[in-house]
What we know:
three-stranded parallel sheet; Arc Repressor Mutant, subunit A
Amino acid sequence: MSTSILRFAPSPTGLLHIGNARTALINWLYARKNKATFILRLDDTDLERSEEQYEQAIYQDLKWLGLDYDRIEWQSKRLNEYQKAAESLKASGRLYACYETPEELEFKRRRLLSQGRPPIYDRAALNLTSEDHARFLNEGRKPHWRFKLMPQVISWEDLIRGKIHFEGEHLSDPILIREDNSPVYTLSSVVDDIDFGITHIIRGEDHITNTAIQLQLFAALGTDPKSFTFGHVQYLLGEQGESLSKRIGSLSLRQLREEGYEACALASYLVKLGTSEDISPSLSLDNLIQEFDISHVSRAAPRFNKNMLDRMNSRLLHHQSFKHVQARLSEKNLSFITEEFWNTCHGNINKLSDLKHIWNVCTQEITPKIEDTKYLEQASNTLPLEPWTSETWLKWTQDLKEKTGRKGRELFMPLRQALTGEDHGPEMKELLPLIGREKALKRLQGKVA
Ligand code: GLU
């Protein structure tokens, strides 16, 4: 076991989506590859927005994706720790009380912006006298508390984005404690990362500025910021480079699972997209761990394309052995699928659920689609005797071609329509042996069979 410790820290305020899943995966793969500890941390301090159903959904979705963790931590159980940290920052003069209302802050912000200046808090509260404080408190105003940043250069070597650089004086002192005394994520996350001995913080790129601030916060709480390695994962974009924020709800793990994607296809796609690596599916998460290299994670914002995910899914199924897929088949109520059927059909499906339809076409009753009785009569007369293999179709249709002079669509389509009742489907050479001679003959004669 290495001494590295990583964490994935979702907030149970909604369903995990592909963006969260990508961050979770990169953390997990890094942890498992390096034999590190992996913690699931629930950022559930926002009592109004956090919901039990979303917490349960996080467990289910991670399980479906195949990501395990060594333990769970709940921020809601650690409020005392955050208070203690706040007190120590107050004592060292790094946390100061402010009384501005949201309206006042908004006014200040707009004024700065209209002057073409960055909306950095002006630190007016640092000039309040003890009388001012007493007056505000007397008026019943409750303070919120800001962290006093140092005017230093802040920089780090990001695992994914390389060197990142900030000037402390260009950042606004962040609020760490709200008026109702609740801690803001910026503080609680740092306290947890220190207490849990986290070594690698891999999270979304929306946290880059937080990282700059938190590096000072680690130091202010007596921990060497160098004990953390950071990686910021890029946001996913849509196919055309558009933001996914509006569609992200429909790209939840729950939804994709219900649409019948294989978790391993999704995982492979999320990790490999945007890289120069061949976007081919890994057949198992173990393989994905073997192949994983964080330096290959895309630095440019990767584009998520559902068609590519579809392709990944079918490629995965095309390569999967019956033994490997058996458990999944029973999960999907497809345990009646036999090994022979799988071997014949898995090269033709995009999702496991497609098997059901093919199975029905081959083994249940269907109504044939008959357009040209004469041709079909000739076809039934030339139908070879069993045993049938995947060669039978070619043999039969070549024979028919010679006898009738038909070719292409004219030759094949009436046969497909009669034998399957449909215009499209998997390759007939694979289906024919599964349908069998008895059914085939009846269907060619226009009978329900
Ligand atoms: N709850 C935060 C988020 O979901 C966690 C960020 C972090 O990993 O520090 O964005």
